Amino acid sequence: MSLAHAVLTSLIEKPSSGYELARRFDKSIGYFWHATHQQIYRELARMEEKGWIVSDTAPDAGATRKREYKVLPAGRAELVRWTQEPTAPIDLRDEFIVKLRADAALGEVDLSGELRARIAQHTEKLAHYRAIEARHFAGGDAMPRAARLQHLILKKGIMYEEGSVAWAREALGVLEGV
Asked: Can you give the pTM of this predicted structure?
């Protein structure tokens, strides 16, 4: 996936200034596709050159150079085209797994501290995701299709964090001989 497609999706949801887009991105798509604000601004310029988006002076710009970006029909068509391409499965690349393999090869290496830190990080993110779920998705099946799809995306994050916590606890048990 390119950053352009993530940005197009976000702009279709709501036309925004670059700053607003970057902030919204951090609170939504950024959970599963990370980009710095600088990368987003560079991508906005490339997309405008391609004719996928247009920018105008934002209504609240005042004396600033604040621009508001909107998706053009060519950008919408590009997003539709991209959604029809097959998606490659995720390749798992986790440095910690290699450390565990090294532990198995070397003998006991104390990785328990790192595992405890991972458990804490995943538990914190899980709590954050569950708070989002409680705040925005209490409607269940009565929600509109778009909200149900967004909830489904959040559920994947919840399941990932739950699985990560469970796996790390099991690994910690093995390391500690439990």
From this structure: 0.80
